[in-house]
Amino acid sequence: MQNVDITIVGAGSAGLTLALLLAPLGLDIVVLEQGSAPSVSKVNHQRVSALNLASQRLLSHLGAWPAIAATAQAYSHMQVWDADSFARIEFDAASERLAQLGWICDNEQIRLALYQQLKVHSNVRCEFNCTINSLQQSERDVLVNINQQQILLSRLLVGADGVNSHVRRATQLPLTHWDYEQQALVASVKTSQPHLATARQVFLPSGPLALLPLPESNMCSIVWSCTTERAAQLLALPEQEFNQALTAASNSVLGVLQLQTKPSAFELKMRYASSWLCGRVVLVADAAHSIHPLAGQGMNLGLMDVAALAELISAAVAENKDFSEARLLRRYERWRKAEAQTLIGVMEVFKRGFSNKQPLLKLVRAVGMSSMNQLPWLKSKIIAAALGNTGDLPKLAQPQAKTRDLA
Protein backbone atom coordinates (compact mmCIF):
# COMPACT_ATOMS: atom_id res chain seq x y z
CA MET A 1 0.00 0.00 0.00
CA GLN A 2 1.28 3.45 -0.93
CA ASN A 3 0.09 6.82 0.34
CA VAL A 4 0.20 9.76 -2.08
CA ASP A 5 -1.21 13.26 -2.08
CA ILE A 6 -2.87 13.25 -5.51
CA THR A 7 -3.67 10.54 -8.04
CA ILE A 8 -4.37 11.69 -11.59
CA VAL A 9 -6.12 9.12 -13.78
CA GLY A 10 -5.29 9.74 -17.42
CA ALA A 11 -2.03 10.80 -19.05
CA GLY A 12 -3.51 12.70 -21.94
CA SER A 13 -2.70 16.37 -22.44
CA ALA A 14 -4.99 17.45 -19.58
CA GLY A 15 -3.66 14.93 -17.04
CA LEU A 16 0.00 15.58 -17.85
CA THR A 17 -0.54 19.34 -17.79
CA LEU A 18 -2.14 19.12 -14.36
CA ALA A 19 0.73 16.98 -13.03
CA LEU A 20 3.26 19.45 -14.40
CA LEU A 21 1.44 22.41 -12.89
CA LEU A 22 1.31 20.75 -9.47
CA ALA A 23 4.84 19.31 -9.51
CA PRO A 24 6.57 22.46 -8.12
CA LEU A 25 4.36 22.32 -5.03
CA GLY A 26 6.30 19.31 -3.74
CA LEU A 27 3.23 17.08 -3.47
CA ASP A 28 3.54 13.34 -3.98
CA ILE A 29 1.70 12.71 -7.27
CA VAL A 30 0.95 9.56 -9.26
CA VAL A 31 -0.38 9.57 -12.82
CA LEU A 32 -2.17 6.39 -13.95
CA GLU A 33 -2.61 5.67 -17.67
CA GLN A 34 -4.06 2.57 -19.33
CA GLY A 35 -2.10 3.24 -22.53
CA SER A 36 1.61 3.44 -23.24
CA ALA A 37 3.99 6.30 -22.49
CA PRO A 38 4.49 9.00 -25.12
CA SER A 39 7.50 8.21 -27.29
CA VAL A 40 9.54 9.93 -29.95
CA SER A 41 8.13 8.95 -33.32
CA LYS A 42 7.46 10.36 -36.75
CA VAL A 43 4.88 13.14 -36.61
CA ASN A 44 1.88 12.14 -38.74
CA HIS A 45 -0.69 14.77 -37.65
CA GLN A 46 -3.43 12.13 -37.73
CA ARG A 47 -5.07 13.66 -34.66
CA VAL A 48 -4.56 17.39 -34.22
CA SER A 49 -5.89 20.16 -32.00
CA ALA A 50 -6.16 23.90 -32.57
CA LEU A 51 -4.48 25.57 -29.60
CA ASN A 52 -5.36 29.18 -28.87
CA LEU A 53 -3.29 31.92 -27.24
CA ALA A 54 -4.47 31.08 -23.72
CA SER A 55 -3.26 27.49 -24.08
CA GLN A 56 0.01 28.68 -25.62
CA ARG A 57 0.65 30.96 -22.64
CA LEU A 58 -0.02 28.11 -20.23
CA LEU A 59 2.21 25.63 -22.07
CA SER A 60 4.97 28.24 -22.39
CA HIS A 61 4.93 28.67 -18.61
CA LEU A 62 5.44 24.93 -18.25
CA GLY A 63 8.39 24.90 -20.65
CA ALA A 64 6.65 22.54 -23.06
CA TRP A 65 5.80 25.02 -25.79
CA PRO A 66 9.11 25.10 -27.78
CA ALA A 67 8.92 21.34 -28.42
CA ILE A 68 5.23 21.57 -29.35
CA ALA A 69 5.76 24.55 -31.65
CA ALA A 70 8.59 22.76 -33.47
CA THR A 71 6.09 20.41 -35.14
CA ALA A 72 3.07 22.75 -35.17
CA GLN A 73 1.74 25.11 -37.80
CA ALA A 74 0.76 28.63 -36.80
CA TYR A 75 -2.17 30.14 -38.64
CA SER A 76 -2.69 33.86 -39.12
CA HIS A 77 -5.99 33.79 -41.01
CA MET A 78 -9.38 32.12 -40.64
CA GLN A 79 -12.08 31.77 -43.26
CA VAL A 80 -15.55 30.45 -42.47
CA TRP A 81 -18.36 30.21 -45.00
CA ASP A 82 -21.68 28.52 -45.64
CA ALA A 83 -21.84 26.30 -48.71
CA ASP A 84 -25.60 26.83 -48.93
CA SER A 85 -25.75 30.64 -48.85
CA PHE A 86 -23.64 33.78 -49.22
CA ALA A 87 -22.70 33.76 -45.51
CA ARG A 88 -19.00 34.34 -44.98
CA ILE A 89 -16.69 35.72 -42.30
CA GLU A 90 -12.92 36.12 -42.19
CA PHE A 91 -10.42 36.89 -39.44
CA ASP A 92 -6.76 37.81 -39.66
CA ALA A 93 -4.09 38.26 -37.04
CA ALA A 94 -2.82 41.58 -38.35
CA SER A 95 -6.20 43.23 -37.73
CA GLU A 96 -5.93 42.18 -34.09
CA ARG A 97 -2.27 43.25 -33.89
CA LEU A 98 -1.19 39.67 -33.39
CA ALA A 99 1.42 37.49 -35.05
CA GLN A 100 -0.93 34.51 -35.24
CA LEU A 101 -4.42 33.39 -34.29
CA GLY A 102 -3.45 29.93 -33.10
CA TRP A 103 -1.56 26.74 -33.86
CA ILE A 104 -2.48 23.36 -35.31
CA CYS A 105 -0.65 20.83 -33.13
CA ASP A 106 -0.21 17.07 -33.24
CA ASN A 107 -1.91 15.62 -30.16
CA GLU A 108 0.80 13.05 -29.46
CA GLN A 109 3.52 15.70 -29.72
CA ILE A 110 1.72 17.74 -27.07
CA ARG A 111 1.73 14.70 -24.77
CA LEU A 112 5.39 13.98 -25.51
CA ALA A 113 6.49 17.55 -24.76
CA LEU A 114 4.61 17.57 -21.46
CA TYR A 115 5.94 14.15 -20.47
CA GLN A 116 9.52 15.17 -21.19
CA GLN A 117 9.13 18.17 -18.87
CA LEU A 118 7.46 16.03 -16.22
CA LYS A 119 10.27 13.45 -16.06
CA VAL A 120 12.59 15.88 -14.24
CA HIS A 121 10.25 16.02 -11.22
CA SER A 122 11.09 13.21 -8.81
CA ASN A 123 7.88 13.74 -6.81
CA VAL A 124 5.72 12.75 -9.79
CA ARG A 125 5.50 9.11 -10.89
CA CYS A 126 3.75 7.88 -14.02
CA GLU A 127 2.32 4.36 -14.25
CA PHE A 128 1.60 3.35 -17.87
CA ASN A 129 -0.22 0.26 -19.17
CA CYS A 130 -2.11 0.40 -15.92
CA THR A 131 -5.48 -1.16 -15.13
CA ILE A 132 -7.72 0.20 -12.37
CA ASN A 133 -9.50 -2.73 -10.77
CA SER A 134 -11.48 -0.81 -8.17
CA LEU A 135 -11.98 2.67 -6.77
CA GLN A 136 -13.40 3.35 -3.33
CA GLN A 137 -13.30 6.31 -1.00
CA SER A 138 -13.83 7.26 2.61
CA GLU A 139 -14.05 10.66 4.27
CA ARG A 140 -10.27 10.81 4.50
CA ASP A 141 -8.92 9.29 1.29
CA VAL A 142 -9.52 7.52 -2.02
CA LEU A 143 -8.38 3.92 -2.46
CA VAL A 144 -7.39 2.70 -5.90
CA ASN A 145 -6.48 -0.90 -6.68
CA ILE A 146 -4.31 -1.10 -9.81
CA ASN A 147 -3.03 -4.10 -11.73
CA GLN A 148 -4.68 -6.42 -9.16
CA GLN A 149 -1.78 -5.99 -6.78
CA GLN A 150 -1.01 -2.38 -5.89
CA ILE A 151 -3.07 -0.20 -3.55
CA LEU A 152 -2.88 3.60 -3.70
CA LEU A 153 -4.36 5.84 -1.01
CA SER A 154 -4.80 9.45 -2.13
CA ARG A 155 -6.04 12.61 -0.50
CA LEU A 156 -7.46 13.66 -3.87
CA LEU A 157 -8.15 11.79 -7.11
CA VAL A 158 -8.58 13.62 -10.42
CA GLY A 159 -10.37 11.95 -13.32
CA ALA A 160 -8.67 13.15 -16.51
CA ASP A 161 -9.39 9.95 -18.41
CA GLY A 162 -11.39 11.21 -21.36
CA VAL A 163 -14.91 10.97 -22.70
CA ASN A 164 -15.41 7.36 -21.60
CA SER A 165 -14.06 8.11 -18.13
CA HIS A 166 -13.69 5.09 -15.86
CA VAL A 167 -13.51 7.45 -12.88
CA ARG A 168 -16.84 9.05 -13.79
CA ARG A 169 -18.52 5.67 -14.11
CA ALA A 170 -16.97 4.26 -10.93
CA THR A 171 -18.20 7.22 -8.87
CA GLN A 172 -21.60 7.12 -10.62
CA LEU A 173 -21.52 10.81 -11.41
CA PRO A 174 -24.63 11.61 -13.50
CA LEU A 175 -24.08 12.31 -17.18
CA THR A 176 -26.16 14.35 -19.60
CA HIS A 177 -25.51 13.49 -23.23
CA TRP A 178 -26.97 13.63 -26.68
CA ASP A 179 -25.88 12.18 -29.96
CA TYR A 180 -25.04 14.68 -32.68
CA GLU A 181 -25.84 11.84 -35.10
CA GLN A 182 -22.60 12.67 -36.85
CA GLN A 183 -19.15 11.21 -37.27
CA ALA A 184 -15.91 13.12 -37.77
CA LEU A 185 -13.65 11.85 -40.54
CA VAL A 186 -10.04 12.75 -39.82
CA ALA A 187 -7.10 12.48 -42.23
CA SER A 188 -4.12 14.33 -43.72
CA VAL A 189 -4.47 15.56 -47.29
CA LYS A 190 -2.23 17.05 -49.92
CA THR A 191 -3.47 20.24 -51.58
CA SER A 192 -2.63 21.47 -55.06
CA GLN A 193 -2.60 25.06 -53.81
CA PRO A 194 -0.73 26.37 -50.72
CA HIS A 195 -2.78 26.83 -47.56
CA LEU A 196 -1.12 30.22 -46.80
CA ALA A 197 -1.28 29.62 -43.02
CA THR A 198 -5.08 29.86 -43.14
CA ALA A 199 -7.55 27.73 -41.20
CA ARG A 200 -10.70 27.17 -43.24
CA GLN A 201 -14.13 25.78 -42.42
CA VAL A 202 -17.15 25.36 -44.64
CA PHE A 203 -20.60 24.55 -43.30
CA LEU A 204 -22.21 21.90 -45.48
CA PRO A 205 -25.83 20.69 -45.17
CA SER A 206 -24.55 17.43 -43.63
CA GLY A 207 -22.03 19.09 -41.30
CA PRO A 208 -18.86 21.25 -41.24
CA LEU A 209 -15.60 20.48 -43.04
CA ALA A 210 -12.42 21.99 -41.58
CA LEU A 211 -9.16 22.34 -43.52
CA LEU A 212 -6.41 22.93 -40.97
CA PRO A 213 -2.94 23.95 -42.18
CA LEU A 214 0.06 21.72 -41.43
CA PRO A 215 3.78 22.64 -41.50
CA GLU A 216 4.16 21.69 -45.18
CA SER A 217 2.67 24.44 -47.33
CA ASN A 218 0.56 21.97 -49.34
CA MET A 219 -0.61 19.73 -46.48
CA CYS A 220 -3.74 20.04 -44.35
CA SER A 221 -5.52 18.04 -41.70
CA ILE A 222 -9.21 17.58 -42.39
CA VAL A 223 -12.00 17.19 -39.86
CA TRP A 224 -15.10 16.36 -41.88
CA SER A 225 -18.20 16.12 -39.68
CA CYS A 226 -21.13 14.54 -41.45
CA THR A 227 -24.14 12.39 -40.80
CA THR A 228 -23.46 8.79 -39.82
CA GLU A 229 -24.97 7.60 -43.08
CA ARG A 230 -22.87 9.99 -45.16
CA ALA A 231 -19.71 9.03 -43.26
CA ALA A 232 -20.28 5.35 -44.03
CA GLN A 233 -20.78 6.18 -47.72
CA LEU A 234 -17.57 8.21 -47.85
CA LEU A 235 -15.48 5.57 -46.09
CA ALA A 236 -16.70 2.95 -48.56
CA LEU A 237 -15.50 4.97 -51.57
CA PRO A 238 -12.31 4.13 -53.45
CA GLU A 239 -9.59 6.68 -52.66
CA GLN A 240 -9.92 8.56 -55.93
CA GLU A 241 -13.67 8.99 -55.49
CA PHE A 242 -13.20 10.10 -51.88
CA ASN A 243 -10.71 12.72 -53.10
CA GLN A 244 -13.23 13.95 -55.64
CA ALA A 245 -15.99 14.18 -53.02
CA LEU A 246 -13.67 16.00 -50.61
CA THR A 247 -12.50 18.47 -53.25
CA ALA A 248 -16.11 19.20 -54.22
CA ALA A 249 -17.14 19.66 -50.58
CA SER A 250 -14.34 22.19 -50.09
CA ASN A 251 -15.44 24.05 -53.22
CA SER A 252 -11.87 23.51 -54.49
CA VAL A 253 -10.72 26.34 -52.24
CA LEU A 254 -7.25 24.70 -52.15
CA GLY A 255 -7.51 23.03 -55.51
CA VAL A 256 -7.50 19.25 -55.79
CA LEU A 257 -7.27 17.41 -52.44
CA GLN A 258 -5.61 14.00 -52.15
CA LEU A 259 -5.59 11.69 -49.14
CA GLN A 260 -2.20 11.06 -47.58
CA THR A 261 -3.45 8.97 -44.65
CA LYS A 262 -6.39 6.62 -44.33
CA PRO A 263 -9.44 8.43 -42.89
CA SER A 264 -10.43 7.57 -39.33
CA ALA A 265 -14.01 7.99 -38.09
CA PHE A 266 -15.06 9.15 -34.63
CA GLU A 267 -18.57 9.39 -33.24
CA LEU A 268 -19.61 12.88 -32.16
CA LYS A 269 -21.56 13.15 -28.93
CA MET A 270 -22.07 15.89 -26.39
CA ARG A 271 -21.33 14.69 -22.88
CA TYR A 272 -21.70 16.80 -19.76
CA ALA A 273 -21.43 15.56 -16.20
CA SER A 274 -24.07 17.39 -14.17
CA SER A 275 -21.83 16.95 -11.13
CA TRP A 276 -18.04 17.03 -11.34
CA LEU A 277 -17.44 16.11 -7.71
CA CYS A 278 -17.89 13.04 -5.55
CA GLY A 279 -16.21 13.37 -2.19
CA ARG A 280 -12.47 13.53 -2.85
CA VAL A 281 -12.86 12.75 -6.56
CA VAL A 282 -13.07 15.52 -9.17
CA LEU A 283 -13.39 15.48 -12.97
CA VAL A 284 -11.56 17.63 -15.52
CA ALA A 285 -11.53 18.12 -19.29
CA ASP A 286 -13.23 15.47 -21.47
CA ALA A 287 -14.13 13.38 -18.43
CA ALA A 288 -16.40 16.25 -17.39
CA HIS A 289 -17.51 17.53 -20.80
CA SER A 290 -17.06 17.00 -24.51
CA ILE A 291 -18.24 19.29 -27.30
CA HIS A 292 -18.64 19.33 -31.06
CA PRO A 293 -15.28 19.93 -32.80
CA LEU A 294 -16.66 22.57 -35.18
CA ALA A 295 -14.90 25.43 -33.35
CA GLY A 296 -11.83 23.44 -32.29
CA GLN A 297 -12.13 24.47 -28.64
CA GLY A 298 -12.17 21.07 -26.90
CA MET A 299 -8.47 20.91 -26.02
CA ASN A 300 -8.39 24.56 -24.94
CA LEU A 301 -11.38 24.07 -22.65
CA GLY A 302 -9.76 21.07 -20.98
CA LEU A 303 -6.42 22.82 -20.45
CA MET A 304 -8.18 25.73 -18.78
CA ASP A 305 -9.94 23.25 -16.46
CA VAL A 306 -6.67 21.87 -15.14
CA ALA A 307 -5.08 25.32 -14.92
CA ALA A 308 -8.01 26.50 -12.79
CA LEU A 309 -7.84 23.46 -10.51
CA ALA A 310 -4.07 23.82 -10.12
CA GLU A 311 -4.46 27.50 -9.29
CA LEU A 312 -6.87 26.74 -6.44
CA ILE A 313 -4.78 23.84 -5.12
CA SER A 314 -1.67 26.04 -5.23
CA ALA A 315 -3.37 28.76 -3.19
CA ALA A 316 -4.50 26.21 -0.60
CA VAL A 317 -1.01 24.72 -0.27
CA ALA A 318 0.53 28.19 0.07
CA GLU A 319 -1.87 28.93 2.95
CA ASN A 320 -1.31 25.49 4.49
CA LYS A 321 -4.94 24.53 3.91
CA ASP A 322 -6.48 21.25 2.83
CA PHE A 323 -6.40 21.24 -0.98
CA SER A 324 -8.97 18.43 -1.13
CA GLU A 325 -11.69 20.08 0.95
CA ALA A 326 -15.17 20.20 -0.57
CA ARG A 327 -15.37 24.00 -0.53
CA LEU A 328 -12.29 24.35 -2.73
CA LEU A 329 -13.46 21.67 -5.15
CA ARG A 330 -16.89 23.30 -5.41
CA ARG A 331 -15.21 26.60 -6.31
CA TYR A 332 -13.43 24.84 -9.14
CA GLU A 333 -16.66 23.19 -10.30
CA ARG A 334 -18.64 26.47 -10.32
CA TRP A 335 -15.83 28.29 -12.11
CA ARG A 336 -15.33 25.83 -14.93
CA LYS A 337 -18.93 24.69 -15.27
CA ALA A 338 -19.90 28.22 -16.24
CA GLU A 339 -17.30 28.25 -19.03
CA ALA A 340 -18.21 24.75 -20.26
CA GLN A 341 -21.95 25.45 -20.29
CA THR A 342 -21.45 28.61 -22.31
CA LEU A 343 -19.33 26.88 -24.92
CA ILE A 344 -21.64 23.87 -25.17
CA GLY A 345 -24.56 26.22 -25.74
CA VAL A 346 -22.74 28.20 -28.42
CA MET A 347 -21.70 25.04 -30.24
CA GLU A 348 -25.25 23.74 -30.20
CA VAL A 349 -26.58 26.99 -31.66
CA PHE A 350 -23.99 26.86 -34.45
CA LYS A 351 -24.58 23.20 -35.16
CA ARG A 352 -28.36 23.53 -35.30
CA GLY A 353 -28.28 26.89 -37.08
CA PHE A 354 -26.12 25.69 -39.95
CA SER A 355 -27.86 22.34 -40.36
CA ASN A 356 -31.27 23.97 -40.79
CA LYS A 357 -32.33 24.04 -44.44
CA GLN A 358 -35.35 26.33 -44.15
CA PRO A 359 -34.96 29.14 -46.73
CA LEU A 360 -35.82 31.92 -44.27
CA LEU A 361 -33.29 30.71 -41.68
CA LYS A 362 -30.63 30.32 -44.37
CA LEU A 363 -31.21 33.94 -45.35
CA VAL A 364 -31.05 35.09 -41.73
CA ARG A 365 -27.74 33.35 -41.04
CA ALA A 366 -26.29 34.61 -44.33
CA VAL A 367 -27.24 38.20 -43.57
CA GLY A 368 -26.04 37.81 -39.98
CA MET A 369 -22.60 36.47 -40.87
CA SER A 370 -22.09 38.92 -43.71
CA SER A 371 -23.09 41.84 -41.49
CA MET A 372 -20.79 40.62 -38.75
CA ASN A 373 -17.94 40.51 -41.24
CA GLN A 374 -18.42 44.24 -41.82
CA LEU A 375 -18.31 45.18 -38.12
CA PRO A 376 -14.67 45.26 -36.92
CA TRP A 377 -15.56 45.84 -33.26
CA LEU A 378 -17.86 42.80 -33.17
CA LYS A 379 -15.36 40.62 -35.01
CA SER A 380 -12.69 41.65 -32.49
CA LYS A 381 -14.90 40.57 -29.58
CA ILE A 382 -15.64 37.21 -31.20
CA ILE A 383 -12.02 36.44 -32.04
CA ALA A 384 -10.78 37.61 -28.63
CA ALA A 385 -13.06 35.06 -26.97
CA ALA A 386 -11.96 32.30 -29.36
CA LEU A 387 -8.29 33.12 -28.78
CA GLY A 388 -8.61 32.98 -25.01
CA ASN A 389 -8.00 36.69 -24.47
CA THR A 390 -11.24 37.30 -22.61
CA GLY A 391 -13.37 35.48 -20.04
CA ASP A 392 -12.69 34.18 -16.56
CA LEU A 393 -9.30 32.65 -17.32
CA PRO A 394 -6.84 31.06 -14.89
CA LYS A 395 -4.00 33.45 -14.08
CA LEU A 396 -1.34 31.61 -16.08
CA ALA A 397 -3.48 31.74 -19.21
CA GLN A 398 -4.39 35.42 -19.02
CA PRO A 399 -2.90 37.91 -21.49
CA GLN A 400 0.37 39.40 -20.27
CA ALA A 401 0.66 36.59 -17.70
CA LYS A 402 4.09 36.59 -16.15
CA THR A 403 5.96 33.33 -15.85
CA ARG A 404 6.12 32.35 -12.22
CA ASP A 405 6.11 29.29 -10.03
CA LEU A 406 2.79 28.13 -8.70
CA ALA A 407 4.21 27.60 -5.23
What does it look like?
By secondary structure, the chain is α+β, with helices and mostly antiparallel strands. It has a domain at 2-40 and 52-72 and 104-177 and 269-358: FAD/NAD(P)-binding domain (3-Layer(bba) Sandwich). 34% of the residues lie in helices and 29% in strands. The chain is built from 11 helices and 20 strands. The chain has helices at 13-22, 53-61, 65-69, 107-118, 166-170, 228-235, 239-249, 298-318, 326-355, 359-373, 376-387; strands at residues 2-9, 29-32, 48-51, 73-75, 77-82, 88-92, 102-106, 124-127, 132-137, 142-146, 150-159, 175-191, 198-204, 207-213, 219-227, 257-259, 264-273, 277-278, 281-283, 289-290. The strands form 3 sheets. Strands 5, 6, 12, 13, 14, 15, 16, 17 and 20 form a 9-stranded mixed beta sheet that branches. Strands 1, 2, 8, 9, 10, 11, 18 and 19 form an 8-stranded mixed beta sheet that branches. Helix 1 packs parallel to helix 8 and helix 8 (298-318) runs antiparallel to helix 9. The longest helix has 30 residues, at 326-355. It is globular, with a radius of gyration of 22 Å. It starts with a strand and ends in a 20-residue tail after the last helix.
